[in-house]
Amino acid sequence: MATTNTDKVQEAYIAYYGRPADPGGLAHWVGKLDKGVAFDVMLQAFGTSGEAVTLFGNKNPEEKIQTLFQQILGRTPDPGGLAFYVGKLKDGSMTSITIAQNVFDGATGDDATMVANKLSVAKAFNEALDTAEKKAAYAGAAAVVTLRDMLATVDETTDPTLFDVNTSIEGLVSAAITAAVSTSESVVISEAAASAHLTITTHSDSGYELLTRKIDVFGIGIYAAGGVAESKLIHAAHVLAEYLDNDEDGVVDNQLVLDAIIASKATVGLWKNEGDLDVITEGQRRYTMDLGDTETRPEWHVNNQPTAFDASLEEILHSITQNGYALAYPEIFGERIGTSVADAMDVARGGQFIEIPEQYPESAWYRYTDPSCDYMCMITEYMYWGLTSILGAQDNRLAVIGQEWKLNTAELVETNDPTLYNLLTDDQYKFPTHLPDGSYAYAG
After folding, report:
1. Which of 44, 148, 156, 161 is most buried, taking the most CB atoms under 10 A from its CB?
2. Based on the structure, what is the number of domains in the chain?
3. What is the rounded CA–CA span in Å between residue 344 and residue 133?
4. Which of 69-83, 174-188, 350-364 has the lowest mean pLDDT?
5. How many CB atoms lie within 10 A of CB 283?
6. Is the pLDDT higher at 28 or at 242?
7. Domain that holds residue 361
8. Is residue 72 part of a domain?
9. Could you tell me if residue 436 is inside a domain?
10. pLDDT, position 208
11. Cα 68 from Cα 364, distance rounded (Å)
12. Do 262 and 408 lie in a common domain?
């Protein structure tokens, strides 16, 4: 019997993520495959997702293969299999996601029985998500871990028809209710911090020991190296606060986005010299968005000079979209092939270019040319250009930015890139509706 697209998607989730597909992801990718998107394109998107980075980003080739075997077959690979797949990773002939699919599809004997049981349990789990409440409960890092643990208990002896998926679902729903109650009073900047305009403090945060000054903004740390002007640190903190609480009432506008940023341990680091951020430990560095002292320009909001732009508007927004929106709404704003924003970007660039093309099509209005920027990074930049143009930051900067981005006003974005405009102005996502100016006004 031919494998259905639903089974293909479910198998990919099991093989690479070790969990049943979430309802949104399952519907999204089945829809893509039904419309003719190649299965390899889906696998590539899986391999570059934020979840893939979390699972495999810090692992060496041997650890990646061991994790995949444990996840799929519940055991370590034999020495020959380990050496074979490590070699494939190192020579570039296979990636982690293609190896995962290869191991899943190539299972024999008891291993084949185990993967078939995992697929049956995963399908039964999704079928049991029969209410909006149950579907909504499958969200967030804690739910992912819970369901990864559930699927890890399935082996070749499991009878899928007797497996209890409802207990796991009830646990998710209960956890979601508890979380909703605990966050019903949305995060509010403390009165002391607000009255002091986001107070600079010292800290003892691991990994940031040499960046001795810090401002806490809704639980997100902004750190500064020695030599960074105090005014620049305060300005950056106010810009972040304004982006997150755009109506400046002391309550974050989108709690899901804030939760995702905090869960990803994202921070902002202000540097005076380019080597300043080298003091951040490697494990923390990858989550820190860097912002230069000299490029942080509070005066731009008064002078509005095209070439003396305030880079805090860009770098801080990058962190919010990368670590917030992309994780809170992975099928919409996820930084990988096949998401809603990625599809829009492919139109804006005149094609799905994984690498920078030698020349963009004449029709392209977004032409990113930095070779160090991968596909994920290009989505980050695309969202920055779109949102800041809608908010008015680029109105008089076309001569400066036109080689990269041509839609420098809200009207141009709405007319020429309606998909992006509609995503960024859709009220359910709570994007900012006015540009931060570095003067967060909430007074407690």
Report:
1. 44
2. 2
3. 30
4. 174-188
5. 11
6. 242
7. 191-429
8. yes
9. no
10. 80
11. 40
12. yes
Q: Which residues fall within 8 angstroms of residue 406, CB to CB, at 6 or more apart?
A: 365, 366, 398, 412
- Residue 111 CA to its chain's centroid (Å): 33
Residue owning tokens 């002078």? 303
Nearest alpha-carbon partner for 140 in 172, 106, 165 = 172
What's the chain's Rg over C-alpha atoms? 23
Mention every residue, 6+ apart, whose C-beta is less than 8 A from residue 240: 217, 220, 222, 268, 316, 320
Does any domain span residue 437? no
Q: Round to whole Å and give the CA distance between 14 and 26.
A: 12
The last residue of a domain, from among 140, 161, 182:
182
DSSP code of residue 277:
G
Considering the domain architecture, whether residues 97 and 220 belong to the same structural domain is answered as no
Tens digits of per-residue pLDDT, 369-393?
888 888 999 999 999 999 999 999 9
Token pair belonging to 320: 């919010």
**Cβ contacts of 277 within 8 Å, gap of 6 or more:** 225, 269, 271, 285, 288, 290
Reported pTM: 0.60
Same domain, residue pair 129 and 203: no
pLDDT tens digit string along 316-350?
Answer: 999 999 999 999 999 999 999 999 999 999 999 99
Nearest Cα neighbor of 391 from 317, 325, 328, 329 is 317
Compute the distance between CA of residue 380 and CA of residue 384 in angstroms, rounded to an integer: 6
CA distance 301 to 62: 51
Q: What is the spatial distance between Cα 82 and Cα 86, in angstroms, rounded to a whole number?
A: 6
Last residue of a domain, one of 182, 210, 231: 182
Write down the residue that tokens 């075997």 correspond to: 69
In sequence order, what are the residues at sequence separation of 6 or more whose Cβ sits closer than 8 angstroms to the Cβ of residue 340?
A: 331, 332, 333, 419, 423
Interior angle at CA 420, CA 356 and CA 397, nearest 5: 70
Give the end-to-end CA distance of the chain in Å, rounded to a whole number: 64
